[in-house]
Design goal:
Blueprint (H helix, E strand, L loop, with lengths): L1 H14 L27 E6 L8 E4 L5 E4 L1 H13 L2 E6 L5 H7 L4 E6 L9 E3 L8 E6 L18 E5 L3 H9 L4 E5 L2 H9 L5 E5 H10 L3 E7 L7 E5 L3 H16 L2 H13 L3 E2 L12
Parallel strand pairs: 1-4, 1-5, 8-9, 8-10
Antiparallel strand pairs: 2-3, 2-13, 5-12, 6-12, 7-10, 7-11
């Protein structure tokens, strides 16, 4: 009962913060207390890919209505409030995030990003804020095929990874002899895996754990070594003042324990009814 109440309270809190693409106040209504230049005056425009629970996803209420949730999204709201700006969240497929940041159309990218050096031309990196790990997963039915990471490197296997992610690079590094299947969304990866269309997949560890809660047939084979372990916020290239105060807000959120609360609440919500992916034109989950 206590767990149910906690999840319900977390859902109510997040519902008050997000409604998909958030426009809670007129532009310029915030105090913009650091006099920051942003892509839209008075707003902090954040792009994300809501298919990555517990980082970002849609929590569904009893009627199936979606609310943008996840600890990245709660952190985005915290940062916007700290800066005195109105939060605007723009969901998109992950492979569009790097393109949009390179074009300078958003202030921040928050989508479980790792500090991949290849992304430094498109965005500046915040301080690291979450020590996420990488995993190789399969199904229990296929578990005997994979005893360790080396066993994934075989031409007999089809291995999935999300397009444009560090997991795609890891697949190429550790399973070069396998056929690498690039998929747009993490949900697509899990669907292909559960349906037997791929043999295994590279995915972020906490995301894999979240999927296991709903797909008990999934099995995490092992952790995948990665030098730049952890997550960062992508900041518009060259906006040094924004980077400075985002880091200030970020470290305050971590130091006062608020971020730990966000993670706990997001994990609880991710274990409940959720939708991962982009909403339809009607604002509802797509079939």
């Amino acid at each position: 009962m206590k767990k149910i109440i906690a999840i319900a309270l977390a859902a109510l809190m997040l519902m008050s913060l997000f409604t998909g693409c958030v426009k809670e106040e007129p532009a310029g209504s915030g105090e913009n207390k650091f006099n920051l230049t942003t892509v839209k005056e008075g707003y902090l425009t954040v792009i994300t890919s809501p298919d990555y629970a517990p980082y970002e996803f849609y929590s569904l209420d009893a009627d199936g209505n979606p609310t943008l949730a996840g600890f990245d999204m709660a952190l985005a709201k915290y940062i916007a409030d700290y800066l005195g700006l109105t939060l605007e969240v723009v969901p998109m497929d992950f492979n569009g995030i790097i393109t949009e940041m390179a074009a300078g159309t958003a202030d921040l990218a928050m989508a479980g990003l790792s500090p991949d050096p290849d992304r430094e031309d498109s965005m500046d990196f915040s301080d690291m804020y979450y020590g996420g790990k990488q995993a190789f997963i399969t199904t229990k039915a296929n578990a005997s095929k994979f005893t360790d990471l080396a066993s994934t490197n075989s031409a007999e296997f089809q291995i999935a990874a999300q397009t444009g992610t560090i997991q795609n690079d890891l697949a190429a590094e550790y399973s070069p002899n396998a056929t690498i299947i690039n998929l747009v969304k993490a949900t697509d990866i899990v669907a292909e895996l559960v349906n037997g269309k791929v043999d295994g997949a590279y995915i972020e560890w906490d995301v894999a754990v979240a999927y296991q809660a709903n797909y008990p047939e999934l099995e995490i084979v092992c952790e995948v070594p990665y030098d730049d372990e952890g997550n960062i916020i992508g900041v518009k290239k060259g906006n040094e003042d924004l980077l400075k105060y985002v880091n200030e807000a970020l470290n305050k959120c971590i130091d006062d324990g608020t971020f730990t609360t966000y993670v706990d609440e997001a994990v609880a919500l991710a274990a409940g009814d959720k939708y991962e992916g982009l909403l339809g034109e009607d604002g509802k989950p797509q079939e």
